[in-house]
Every structure is written in structure tokens, then in C-alpha cells.
Amino acid sequence: MVLRKIYRNYLQNNLFMRLLLLFSMITVLTIISFSYFMYYSMSQAAINRELDIQKKALTNVNNYLGGKYDSAQSILFGLYRDSSLASGVSFMLQHPFQEYVQHGLEQYNLGGNSMWSDGLQYFKNQVEDNKDIRNLLLYSEDQQTLYALGQNGQMKFVPTNRARSYIPDVMALESKSVELPNIWVREAIGQWDPNLYAIRTPITDKLTLKTIGQQVVYFSTDGIWKILQNDKDELKGMILVLAPDGGVLFDSSNQYVGKLYPHMDQINAMYENGGSSQGDYVTKLTQSKGNFSTVSIIPRKELEATSKRIGSTILLISAICIFFAILIPFLVVMSVAKRTNQIIRFTRKVKQGDLSVRIPDVREDEIGQISRSFNEMIEELNLYIDRVYKANIKQKQTELTALQARVNPHFLYNTLEVIRMRAISQGAHDVGEMIYSLSALFRSFVQQKKIYTLKHELEACRLYLELFQIRYKDKFTYAIDWDRRLGSVRVMKMSLQPIIENYIVHGLRSESSDNELHIRVKQVEAFLHVQIEDNGNGISPQRLNELALFLQDEELEGESFGLRSINQRLKLLYGSEYGLKLHSEPGQGTTIDIWLPMDGGTEVDDV
């Protein structure tokens, strides 16, 4: 009910509000759809960017640890390349320490090189050259002895009898991977730094190719932190380095360092380069060297926080766009509606009869053109009403002036008919013809024809001329030349007869016997041209100029009708290009040209 009421009160009869509502709905839906698309695209791009950053960091860490694995192997490769050095280290790992010392002294006394001293110095140099090495351990399987070199260059000798230590059992396990330092080895050498990882490599006798011991290198994770330093501000979540058994060699969050990762089964089940674990984004890289894995874990909440920031920004921009997308069309539509309502209001005033109103809109757009057309229409309407009104008044004045005896026309016709019959019975045939012509002329004046044509007007002129031809007998002749096909053209009533009357009153020379009047009618393009020519007294130039001005003046009420009346009525009804033109010479005669429309002047029937 509420929606129906709102529609009925504000939308049903309001086109602009419906257009505004439709445009607003389309705009809002478009902006929302576009915003959602932008949010989805930018969120995915942000997630992919974060994952790319994590993957780049993982790749750097992976390559770094692979390089450390190679550096640990290269220590033994350098040992094997020097046969003397390799023999000394092999002797040290296969004999008791005292025998090795004694053997070294004997070699020194004989003038030879001390293999023990050279082997020890070789490993010391390796520790000094590689700042990431914290300890380098050599383990003898035959003697169950552990030699530990530290960064300070000192060596620590640790006996590891199987009955008293777990170190022999630990060293007996084969391992070619990067792993956590063993707790028993840590305890034996007193190394409890948690940020270490171990790379163990077997040592073989170069001659017998028998495994005689183990090399264990403890690397610090400080180098990994340096690798991640460039991307530290952009990294999210945590980066782990995992041993095959799940030991955490490195943890950027320091949460699992030195411990077993609790979700190792899920990590092992994942494919490399991507996956999901417990709703988190996980990226995994496996290094064949050392058999370790680097894993990036980004909690979904952290990526969603990035998406929320993007969503908030897009939402704010969308809200601003929607606001202006509705506000600007609303202002434009309201302006157009205001101007349209103004046109409607002025139209209603015209409907009520107020033809003086004008719409004050000067803009050049469509509504401004409608307003100007409205104003021009009102002006034309005023001119038309004024023209037809004045033409009707002048026509009535003409008819009243010409016919003072219109009160009882039937009485007049009957009386004239009795007089005519009496004249004929007494032999006065010319008097009878005059009475007949006068009676027919009066009848044509009095009768109201719905359509008045050129034929009717020329017949009235002929009847009028017949009266005076009878009166003046052989002193006056007339001729009417016209195309009978023009007889149906509609003309203004009494547009020619007053001109002929004017000639009879002012131009006819009663003392002359050669008075002539010619009426010629023809079509000239879109005009009906009537020319009335006589050989009467003519008009002097001064009088002709006065008549030219006289034709342009308004006719006063009660003034006699004539040339001016005809000229003004023609111009009022048909336009300024129609009317009368006079040409005259004193003693030669006068020519009057009347220009009428060929379309019959359909505006007024009885005028």
C-alpha cells in the first residue's frame, strides 16, 4: 500500500521522476556491478602479489640453503683434492688421538710435514672464511671420538663411548639432509644457540673408500634473515624451513624454531608451489639438495585484511560516484521539469484567454526553442485574431453602408418587381431592365453565400455596370475579359464593385460619348490579377500621392467605404503582398491593379 501510494503521488503522472528513477537504478546497478568486478579483480591481484612476494622470498631462501649445502660438501671436496691432507685426516680418524700426536711428532722429527697440523688448520680456515659457520665437527667412527672446532679457532676433543653416550648411535644413522642439530651433540660441545641448522656429510678413506667418520657443519640462520631483509616489510605470515622429519630449521615468526612442526602431515600431502592448509594460503618449495622444504604460510585473515582495505576504498569511491551520478541528473532533470512546468503553466493561461503571456526562456536548447515557438505562436495568433476581427468589422460596415434598405429585403424585391412589370406594360422597357438589374444587384448584396467566388463578384459588377449603361445609353460601354476556369476561385465579397462605383462617381465624363471600362482577370503565378482600366478624368499626381498615403491609414468608423476599405481588408486577410495599386494620368484615365490569392483565401468564408 505504501509503495502504491508513493507511485501514485510521485511517479504515476511525473515523467521526469520516472526517468530519473530509471536512470538512477541503472546507474546504481552499473556502479555496483563494476565495483564488485573491480573489488574481485583487485583482491585477486593483491593476493597474487602477496603470494608472488612470498614465493620470491622462498626461492631466495631455498637457493641460499642450497648454496650452504654445497659449501659444506665443498669442504670435503677440497680435502680430497690434497692427497697428503686427506691421508693425515684419515689417520687421525682411524687411530687414537695419542698415536696420531705421536705419529705427527715422528713425521716432524724426520723433517716431514705435520699432517695433523695441516688438517687442523684446513678446517680452521674453513670456519674462519665462512662467517655463517658456528661449529665444524669431525666424528671418528672407529675411535668414537668427536673433534669440535668453534669460531674462536679452538678445538674441543670429546670422547663418545657408546656405553656412556648416544652420539655414536646418532652418527650411525645415515643422513644426507639439512637437519636440526642433535641435542646430544649440542650437550657434548656446549652449543645451545637455537638459531642453527646442521649439514652432515660422511667422510671416506680415499684409498679404501670406507666411511671412517662424519663431518657436521652448524650454520647460523642469520644469513637467512639477511636474505629476507629486503622483503621484510612486505612479507606476511611466516616462512619455515623444514627438515624431512618435520624439524623446524628456521621460522620467521620464532614460534616453532627447534621444534617439530605440528602440521607436517598436511605439508607433506601438498603439491609444490601452492595449496591450502586449515584455510591458510600455503606455498611450498622442496630442495633436492639436502632434502629440506621451504614453506610460506599466510593466514587467510591477513589477506582478507588487505581485501577489506581495498573493499573499503572501492566502497567509498563507489558511494561518491553514486552520489554524484544521482545528484547531477537530479539537478538537470529538476531544471528541465521546472522549465517544462513553466510552459504548461503559461499554456493554461492561454487556455483561459490570456494572450499577453510570454515564456521568459532565452536558452538555445530544445525547451528554449519550444518556448520561443510558443511565444511566436501567441504573437501569430494575436495577429490572426486582430486581422480577422478587423476584416469582419470592416465587412459589416461595408455591407451596412451599401445596403441601408436591408431591414425588409423581400418587401424591397416585391416592390421593385411591381414597378418593373408596370414599366414594361407601359412600354418603358429600358426602365424595366434597370429595375431588374438593380433588384438582382441588391439580391446579390443581401444574400449570404457560404462560398463567394470570382464568378459572383464579376456578376455583381456586370449588374451594376448594366444600370449605368442603360442610364447613359450610347455614352458608356464596358467589357469583362476573364477565363471561365477561374470562376470557382474564392474571393473577398465586394472586392471589385466599390472600385467600379468609384469610377462611375469620380471618373465618368458625362459630356463625352466614348467612356469605356475594361475589366481583365488572369492568373499570374500564385496570384489572381484583376486589372480595371478606364479612360476617364484621371487623377492628378498630387492627388495620386495623397491617395497612396490614404490607402495606408486606418478607416474611421462611419467613414464611406471605397478603395481604402478594399485595400485594408485584403491586407488584413491575406497579407501585405496583396492589395491595390493605382496608376493614373490626368485626362487619360486610371488603371487599378488588384492582387488576390489563388488559394481562395480560405481563412474566412463570408468576408
Automatic annotation (TrEMBL):
Listed CDD domains: HAMP
Catalyzed reaction equations: ATP + protein L-histidine = ADP + protein N-phospho-L-histidine
Topological category with respect to the lipid bilayer: Multi-pass membrane protein
UniProt KW Chaperone keyword: no
SUPFAM superfamilies: ATPase domain of HSP90 chaperone/DNA topoisomerase II/histidine kinase (SSF55874), HAMP domain-like (SSF158472)
EC number: 2.7.13.3
Keyword Oxidoreductase among UniProt keywords: no
Keywords: ATP-binding, Cell membrane, Kinase, Membrane, Nucleotide-binding, Phosphoprotein, Transferase, Transmembrane, Transmembrane helix, Two-component regulatory system
Chain segments annotated as coiled-coil in the UniProt record: none
Stretches assigned to the Histidine kinase domain: 496-600
Cross-referenced PROSITE patterns: HAMP (PS50885), HIS_KIN (PS50109)
One Pfam family linked to the record: HATPase_c
Domain HAMP: 334-386
Subcellular location: Cell membrane
Stored InterPro entries: Bact_2-comp_sensor_kinase, HAMP_dom, HATPase_C_sf, HATPase_dom, His_kinase_dom, Sig_transdc_His_kin-like_C, Sig_transdc_His_kin_internal
Record field: transmembrane: 20-39, 314-337
PANTHER family in UniProt: SENSOR HISTIDINE KINASE YPDA, SENSOR PROTEIN KINASE HPTS
Descriptive protein name: histidine kinase
Native source species: Paenibacillus plantarum
Taxonomic lineage: Bacteria, Bacillati, Bacillota, Bacilli, Bacillales
